[in-house]
Amino acid sequence: MARKSTFDEVAGEISTLVDRHAVDVFLFQEVQQDPGAPRLIAHELAETLGFYCLFQTTDHWKDGGSQGLAILSRYPIENAAVIPLKHFDLGFRQRNRIGLAATLVTPLGPVRVVNVHLDSRINTDERLAQLSGVLESEADDEGPSIVGGDFNTGDFKWLTRWFPIPLAARQGDAVRQLMSAHEFDTPFAQDGATFKYLGLRLDWIFTKGLQADSWGIDRIDFSDHRAIWLTMSSTLAPPN
């Protein structure tokens, strides 16, 4: 959401995505709440779309504002949980990183969904350690699962949190290998950039027990990221 906080800034493009792709679920990161704002933008969007909404604050700002993660779903939301992720001292622009998890009651049956937003200026082993918190927390869930969001998988090696060395790491490949080891797959490995600058692929959707039928990356003007989308069918359901 790029910390956009007013309904008018995002409503048109969100509605276009819903119409274009028949969206059932949104995973939003950087959902901003301005100081004194009467309503959260995620709740306004959910009400307009007729969706259910789950929101969790991650950070509070000095000016009284805040931001967090949201799951918007056409289907009922159950068994919500907040998964604390490993904290790293970044020196500046600190963030509290979590996974926001819920079970969606879909026509395919219950589907577990986890929305994540990982740190930016961390190295590969640290990123895997942060993501491992999600995998460990959800290890007992044997049904269909989705883990998606902003993984911040830039191909950098960071020196003292300040200096990026370009192309000195393949963080996206490392994340895919970790997820694959836990039976998660993604169709986005060969697709293009999900960030508007530097050609970076920062955002991912991983699934387990679900088959990717179609997918893509759409430009959205209000954000510095692009919207990635995926349509799925269950690999666990009997054939029609």
List the helices and strands in order. HEHEEEEEHEEEHEEE
- The number of distinct β-strands equals 12
CATH class of the largest domain: Alpha Beta
- What is the second-level CATH architecture of the largest domain? 4-Layer Sandwich
SS class: alpha+beta
Look at the structure and give the mean pLDDT.
93
What would you say this structure looks like, in words?
The protein is α+β, with helices and mostly antiparallel strands. The chain is 20% helix and 37% strand. It is built from four helices and twelve strands, in the order αβαβββββαβββαβββ. The chain is globular and about 45 Å long. The chain starts with 6 loop residues before the first helix and ends in a 6-residue tail after the last strand.
Question: Could you outline the blueprint of secondary structure elements for this entry?
Answer:
Elements: H1 7-21, E1 25-33, H2 41-49, E2 52-60, E3 66-73, E4 77-84, E5 98-106, E6 109-117, H3 124-137, E7 145-150, E8 156-159, E9 163-166, H4 171-181, E10 203-208, E11 210-218, E12 227-234
Parallel strand pairs: 6-7
Antiparallel strand pairs: 1-3, 2-3, 4-5, 5-6, 7-10, 8-9, 11-12
Annotation keywords:
single chain; 240 residues; alpha+beta; Deoxyribonuclease I, Chain A; 2 domains; 5-stranded mixed beta sheet; 20% helix; 37% strand
Put the structure in a nutshell.
This protein is of the alpha+beta class and 240 residues long. The chain has helices at residues 7-21, 41-49, 124-137, 171-181; strands at 25-33, 52-60, 66-73, 77-84, 98-106, 109-117, 145-150, 156-159, 163-166, 203-208, 210-218, 227-234. It contains four helices and twelve strands; from the N terminus they run αβαβββββαβββαβββ.
